[in-house]
Amino acid sequence: HMNHIETAPGVALPDGRWRTRDIVVTAVIGVAFGVVFWAWGLVWAPIEAALGPGRFLFYAVWLIPAVLAPLIVRKPGAALFAEMLAAAVSTLIGSQWGPDTLLSGFVQGAAAELVFAFTFYRVWSFPVLALAAVASAAAAWVHDWVLYFPEVEVTTMLAFGAMMAFSAVVIVAGGSVFLVRALREAGVLEGFAGGQV
Questions:
Q1: Which residues touch 1 (CB under 8 Å, ≥6 apart)?
Q2: Residue 24's CB: how many other CB atoms inside 10 A?
Q3: Quick check: 41 and 90 in contact, CB under 8 A?
Q4: Vertex 194, ends 80 and 175: CA angle to 5°?
Q5: DSSP SS3 for 46
Q6: Are 95 and 41 in contact (CB under 8 A)?
Q7: Per residue in 38-89, pLDDT tens?
Q8: Which helix or strand (DSSP H or E) is residue 11 part of?
Q9: Fewer CB within 10 Å, N side or C side of the chain?
Q10: CA 154 → CA 66, 142, 149, 158, 160, distances in Å?
């Protein structure tokens, strides 16, 4: 039984089929981060009050599933699935942004998915993770600009965007690598390619 499709001698495309454990792990990440998103939403107002524009340095907590899930399961759709599920769970618990949370989850997951698709889900180096995280942040930035900050000046929005991008590299890409290493050492990632980062 071949786990991949041979396209040419020595060249293999990754297996796009989802195993049961891929679905379970991605779902667990989605649900867990749905709770995190909800809790982060509760503290967002105090963070905003304390830090003002500096809050955007912590924005990327909402983007973690879009990189963490694909880094572990390495399957097409993992970024979108995990981010959408997290958004749905936080909405069900009671996100103050209501159904728009689902649109946010979609654009954030889809943007990261595009970056991984460009590598054919084969390259999991830190620069690729960082690029996927920044793409997710950029999608969130555009979404939020249109819906929440239409009156804000371009220069201010560019500053917000720069902070979100920085946040994405540190919190999403860096945080995902840290979490995967911790999970691997805990023995949770047996049978996952992501256990090898």
A1: none
A2: 12
A3: yes
A4: 70
A5: helix
A6: yes
A7: 999 999 999 999 999 999 999 999 999 999 999 999 999 999 999 999 999 9
A8: strand 11-13
A9: N
A10: 27, 12, 10, 6, 10
For the whole model, what pTM was predicted? 0.89
Q: Please, what sign has the CA dihedral across residues 175, 33, 193, 11?
A: negative
Residue 97: phi and psi, rounded to 5, are -90, 0
| Amino acid at position 165, single letter | A
Q: Residue 187, by phi and psi: left (phi above 0), alpha (psi -120 to 50) or beta? A: left
Alpha carbon of 61 to those of 169, 180, 188: distances in Å? 11, 16, 22
Alpha helices per DSSP H over 55-153: 65-73, 78-93, 100-118, 126-148
13 - beta bridge partners? 5
| Residue appearing with tokens 């840290």 | 178
* Whole-angstrom distance, CA of residue 134 vs CA of residue 15: 26
Query: Residue written as tokens 């990189």?
Result: 67
